[in-house]
Specification:
By secondary structure, the protein is of the alpha/beta class. It has one domain (about 5-125): HUPs (Rossmann fold, 3-Layer(aba) Sandwich), CATH 3.40.50. It has six helices and five strands. The chain has a five-stranded parallel sheet, with helices on both faces. Helix 4 (about 95-115) links the parallel strand 4 and strand 5. Helix 1 (about 15-25) crosses helix 2. The protein starts with a strand and ends with a helix. The relative contact order is 0.20.
């Protein structure tokens, strides 16, 4: 069974993330969405909220693709998380060349830690390349329309968060 791990903070999950998840699903038999517990980033949504949003957004996708999609929070090294969930492939989404430089370094380090786990890069579709969770949160916080960047459910959650 080919198990892939797609890690990120997903704060919040965007249409760009969903695009990568959909395309990654065609490469593996089981896809684990690794939700990083990154206290340094100071997420807008709690871990529980991020996990719930991802599970809700991926339920239909799992039915559509016919593969199992599991959400797995983690706080350890990415390579150890991959081993924990039985993943032989780490899936990384790329938006721009700048992303590649960082990802290239990470792959090199991960290969030193465990050369049995491969990393696959997927470029976001053109309409999703500019989407970044950080920018989505900022636009929403300032009252802008983010409906082009997130699902209706995530849009509602963002509006509710910033109305407080």
């Amino acid at each position: 069974m080919r198990v892939g791990l797609y890690p990120g903070t997903f704060d919040p999950i965007t249409l760009g993330h969903i695009d990568i998840i959909r395309r990654a699903a065609s490469l593996v038999d089981k896809l684990v969405i690794g939700v990083a517990i990154n206290r340094d980033k100071g997420p807008l949504f709690t871990l529980e909220e991020r996990v719930a949003l991802i599970e809700d957004e991926c339920a239909a996708l799992a039915r559509e693709t016919g593969i199992e999609i599991v959400v797995h929070p983690f706080e350890n090294l990415l390579i150890d998380c991959a081993k924990d969930v039985g993943a032989g492939i780490i899936i990384r989404g790329l938006r721009a060349v700048a992303d590649f430089e960082y990802e290239y370094q990470m792959v090199g380090m991960n290969r030193q830690l465990n050369n049995q786990i491969e990393t696959v890069f997927l470029m976001a579709e053109a309409q999703h390349q500019a989407i970044a969770s950080k920018l989505v949160k900022e636009i929403s916080r300032l009252g802008g329309d983010v409906s082009k960047f997130v699902t209706p459910r995530v849009n509602v959650e963002l509006k509710a968060r910033f109305e407080k």
